[in-house]
From TrEMBL:
<dbReference type="GO" id="GO:0016787">
    <property type="term" value="F:hydrolase activity"/>
</dbReference>
<dbReference type="Pfam" id="PF01966">
    <property type="entry name" value="HD"/>
</dbReference>
<dbReference type="InterPro" id="IPR012340">
    <property type="entry name" value="NA-bd_OB-fold"/>
</dbReference>
<protein>
    <submittedName>
        <fullName>Metal dependent phosphohydrolase</fullName>
    </submittedName>
</protein>
<dbReference type="InterPro" id="IPR003607">
    <property type="entry name" value="HD/PDEase_dom"/>
</dbReference>
<dbReference type="InterPro" id="IPR006674">
    <property type="entry name" value="HD_domain"/>
</dbReference>
<feature type="domain" description="HD/PDEase">
    <location>
        <begin position="161"/>
        <end position="296"/>
    </location>
</feature>
<dbReference type="GO" id="GO:0031125">
    <property type="term" value="P:rRNA 3'-end processing"/>
</dbReference>
<keyword id="KW-0378">Hydrolase</keyword>
<dbReference type="InterPro" id="IPR050798">
    <property type="entry name" value="YhaM_exoribonuc/phosphodiest"/>
</dbReference>
<dbReference type="InterPro" id="IPR004365">
    <property type="entry name" value="NA-bd_OB_tRNA"/>
</dbReference>
<dbReference type="Pfam" id="PF01336">
    <property type="entry name" value="tRNA_anti-codon"/>
</dbReference>
<dbReference type="InterPro" id="IPR006675">
    <property type="entry name" value="HDIG_dom"/>
</dbReference>
<dbReference type="GO" id="GO:0003676">
    <property type="term" value="F:nucleic acid binding"/>
</dbReference>
Amino acid sequence: MKKEQFVKDINVGDKIDAPFVVVEKKMMDFNTQKKTGEKFMLLRLRDNTGTIKAVLWERAEQTANYVHEDTIVWVKGKTQEYKGVQIIIDEIEAIAEDIDLTPFVPSSSIGSEELKKELRKTIKNINNKYLTELLNTIFEDQKLLSLYLKAPAGKKVHHNYLGGLAEHSLEVIKIVSSMYQLYQDRINWDLLVTGSLLHDIGKIYEYDLNSPSFQMTDRGKLLGHIALGEELIRSKIDRLSYFPESLAVEIRHMILSHHGEKEWGSPEVPKTFNALCLFYGDLISSRLNQVDKLFFEAETGEQEENFNWTNFDPLMGRAFYLPQEETSEQIEGSQLSLDNLTES
């Protein structure tokens, strides 16, 4: 099976005849009296170039029995304008055969080899021998390294693509480096770098990396990435000779507290300077990536309503304004108006 039609190339009025992965499915009630009690299906479909909305008006309840989230489906239909481009589905069929997931799963714009190179360079620059030994123990394990470089940092919210975990973790280091420049006497740089690299490592077990929509594993659902990550780090530390207990406690605290607040899923709140810096570095990286996706959707025509605003983000409770670039004629006109005011 070869995929030839991609989301990024789809426009209003196009005929659709292509496979996609279902990343979201909703069964909705009709609000017309004629179809009271009947349902239609709303889908969000994806390939490695983006996502697109789709709707199935007929036979939705029968179709729901075999079309699920994480299913790869072949869709036939046409597109129309409804709060952005939307596919009106005529036919939809689940694909049962084993297929290459590459066309369906987005990846980091930074290649795996480049991420690996930056990771190794970062570890090499750490001076604390205990933290260096811990990181080498983890990342010289080729299975763990492969999972770390492949895993997403999230399913939906931020860095939700292959390589997202490594990209996000290295990005956090760049963000907290500015904090270190301001508070060098308070921050243990080697510890903060180590915490940045390891804070989300539990996500290698939280998400099913063979799932095209990054469904959570049973362990991920039952324990979550914070507990899984702390467990992994603690087990690696226990195998190291003479690893200082105080250092072990602090790195474990950074993992357990990096979500910042208990209502945000943290077993503990940050209670050290390094843990607080990690929390804010993590938050800035994730939020900016989240908003960057909204701007990307707007730039590629995926926003649903007002073209001067991004889509509404329910997690942040807002849409974001899209600054409009002035044309050269508008700039020239503004300058003329200023000149006239100056002369008068």
